[in-house]
Amino acid sequence: MTEFFMGLGLSYEMAWGLSTICGILLIAFPLMLGVAMIIYADRKIWAAMALRKGPNVVGPLG
């Protein structure tokens, strides 16, 4: 990937830095997305477990 950035006219140091950042993002972004989906699913599951039946379902005597 460094060669790609160098082909765009960047110096070796800039190309190496950009390719390193791109590599880190390619690893970190899917991990963060997966963690966010797991947290979302966990919150949905616990919210469904915490649902209670309201007064319109159980009647006036509860």
Would you mind describing this structure in some detail?
The chain has 62 residues and is mainly alpha-helical. It has one domain (2-51). The protein is built from three helices and no strands. 0% of the residues are buried.
Rounded mean pLDDT is 91
Topology as a string of helices (H) and strands (E): HHH
Total count of helical runs of at least 4 residues: 3
Structural class: mainly alpha
Give the number of domains. Answer: 1
Overview features:
rod-shaped, 77% helix, single chain, 62 residues, mainly alpha
SSE order and pairing:
Layout: H1 2-7, H2 12-49, H3 55-58
Q: Can you give me a brief rundown of this structure?
A:
This protein is mainly alpha-helical and 62 residues long. The chain is built from 3 helices and no strands.
